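hey all, quick one before standup. I had two proteins in the batch that finished overnight and I want to keep them in one place so we stop losing track of which output belongs to which input. First protein below, input sequence then structure tokens straight from the run.
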Amino acid sequence: MNKHIEDAFTNWLGNLKEVRNLSDNTLISYKHDVKSFIEFISTHTGSEVSIKYLNDMKISDFRSFLSYLRNKDISSTSIARIISSLKSFFNYLLNTNLIESTVVQSLRTPKQKKSLPRPISSELAIETIKHAQDMEKEKWIGMRNKSILMLLYGCGLRISEALNLNFEDINENDYLIIKGKGNKERMVPLMDYVKNDIENYIHECPKNFMKDDPLFVGKRLDRLSPRIIQYVLEKIRHNLSLPETATPHALRHSFATHLLDSGGDLRTIQELLGHSSLSTTQKYTKVETEKLYDAYSKTHPLAKK
């Protein structure tokens, strides 16, 4: 990467973290998006991309990159995020007087199909969590995996939120302070059955924990990667012949759906999930509506005519 672009790139990321208070995961995505774009342009021009080249780019250049992404079967959701990343980077270049072009603002975000959450049944969720422990040869790893999935299904945490926990977060309190998207904090009840599993894992884990150590660690005793838990779910799906929808995030969806099934109100579920908008949480009522319609269509006398 050209040194001037690299400097601007680094400063832009620093600005995002400081001013917009974006999470580390979001920053990683933005960084990857813009680097991929610059690498694509560099490959197709056969030369190093300069600030001047970025300033002189036409809308057709951006559309070529988007076509390349579509040909790779990149989802419309991911493409929308990539466009957002590019607009942010080019806006930064414009605001710092490195370029004058505003062409990137002409890019339209693709329409995204609003997908409903795809929860799994409570029976499958419990079986999945049990198998996460039973299938491991090393006892502490099985207990670790079970504890993580318990946080997803028992507390509604995102996988990133569970893996970002530190040892000091598990204390005498019966709740967790979770830092979610946009670094917004929320308080989540920590049920005894979840806390007991975590404490059993801590007791069995070979790491001598200090208060600011990561709670969930890999074999090298450093912070666990989300990819490991995704792989664990892949193995469980294979072993138990579960549907492809049985993912770590499906356990979080199931937490919300099963709470709603049991009479939980949307506002409470919104707070537990850390949704900034109630409309996001309302997707779960649509799931319930679909289930009711399906039951009606199969059982009601009028539906059989």
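OK second protein, same deal, sequence then tokens:
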Amino acid sequence: MMNPLVIALICVLSILTLFFLVYLFLIKPGKRRAEIDKFKSLKYAHRGLHGDGVAENSLSAFRAAVEAGFGIELDVRLSADGELVVYHDDTLLRVSGIDARVDEKTAAELSEIHLSETADTVPTFKEVLELVDGRVPLLVEIKEDAGKYGVTEKTVEMLRGYGGDFIVESFNPLALGRVKKLAPEIMRGILSQNFLSEKKYRTVTHFLLEILVLNVICRPDFIAFNCKHGKNAALRLARFIFRAPTLAWTVRSGEEEALAKKRAFDGIIFENYLPKG
């Protein structure tokens, strides 16, 4: 008769193995390795090539990135009248000095609001697409705030008519899940980081996002992770088991770029310096 201790050990190991296999199923990314190859090793200018009098997410910043030959990372959200505009924050305060939400202003009103005291104003997504015109790849972050829907659907609709190279990303796996349903051909990436290191992010949702189990909702083609958190166990496991393509954000110096490379990130999203190559 088998020793009860051995039986208990076998049961525990079996349960742990089952949990591990379920976890692997949950974090498993998409399978489009060949399609994502041309995007994964690029250098993307975070909100365009801004600084030195050039505002973030401005037409001037995007024009500078195009001229320098860098890919462009940008943010899309909805105006009050349902137009896609390019703006990172949900409020206008930090960049434009106006204490109001972006979605409280119409696209026409936003077009009169200046960015960081420059001549540039808030651009529409359509204006940015017309400016870039396929000359460099785009990395489009979908900003879908809680209870604010429609930005994902409109982004998909507009990108379907765009002739250039692009991929999309979001911190919101539900938004990416809708991209997967509406346009499975569009390559998508999940954004994440070590959320629990910051008190304001210590929620169940952020914990699940950090350990990548919400990948099951959207099956991302790549993972964009905070460049300072490259040792995250879930990230390393997804890369080791599934060869998941990874981008590092936001790299702000040559030293951080070297560290991102050391930690096996494929590409970078950068600002405040010019990467080599």
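Flagging for whoever picks this up: The longest strand covers residues 71-78. DSSP finds twelve helices and nine strands in the chain.
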